[in-house]
Amino acid sequence: RREPLALTNLKKKNEETGEEELASRLDHCKAKATRHIFLIRHSQYNLDGRADKDRTLTPLGREQAELTGHRLASLGLKFDQIIHSSMTRATETTEIISKHLPGVKKISTDLLREGAPIEPDPPVSHWKPEAVQYYEDGARIEAAFRNFIHRADAKQEEDSYEIFVCHANVIRYIVCRALQFPPEGWLRMSLNNGSITHLVIRPNGRVALRTLGDTGFMPPDKITRT
């Protein structure tokens, strides 16, 4: 779902019509619509929970999700879907946000779960997961990027607006990959809870970052990063 030429079977090129048929088939594979990707970091959650099911949103986290949902609704966009991480804090954030966006379907996926995408450069002393995590989580988060971040399907006629509720590490990695920046730099960015990151993918494959970690819609005393 990237270069139209990669979607065209050149072996089927008609010897009589030649380049004209190739051009026609390329047009058939070209995207026409723009995709708007809204990456939402989950709200503040209980850090003391041992298992994922215990890491539920705090009262402040629930307030943050309400503010994020209200902000998304105020944009007046026709959102197509909400895809969210299957982790408890992301699922709860999604449930609160979705109240402000009635009728928008919700889809849960394990691909967007939090993890260690790639060893950061420069390294940091306060966060050193086991090396095996980079192999396990990294492959999954890269799969999430390839599965969800691409130009519109050629059959898509109108621009789309999609929400992804997930985690800071996942969002930061996706932003680096989408902008073709060295992904090892993902940890140089910081994202607040409930923040909105807006990526735009044009039909020609160009990607633009409209906002990164926006929480300007929250009162200062509601903003956290934990």
Automatic annotation (TrEMBL):
Domain of life: Eukaryota
Listed GO CC annotations: mitochondrial outer membrane
Entry keyword set: Hydrolase, Membrane, Mitochondrion, Mitochondrion outer membrane, Necrosis
GO MF terms, alphabetically ordered: protein serine/threonine phosphatase activity
Catalytic activity as recorded in UniProt: O-phospho-L-threonyl-[protein] + H2O = L-threonyl-[protein] + phosphate; O-phospho-L-seryl-[protein] + H2O = L-seryl-[protein] + phosphate
BP term (GO), one: positive regulation of mitochondrial fission
EC nos: 3.1.3.16
Compartments where located: Mitochondrion outer membrane
PANTHER family: PHOSPHOGLYCERATE MUTASE-RELATED, SERINE_THREONINE-PROTEIN PHOSPHATASE PGAM5, MITOCHONDRIAL
Similarity comment: Belongs to the phosphoglycerate mutase family. BPG-dependent PGAM subfamily.
Identification of the protein by name: Serine/threonine-protein phosphatase PGAM5, mitochondrial
Organism field: Crotophaga sulcirostris (Groove-billed ani)
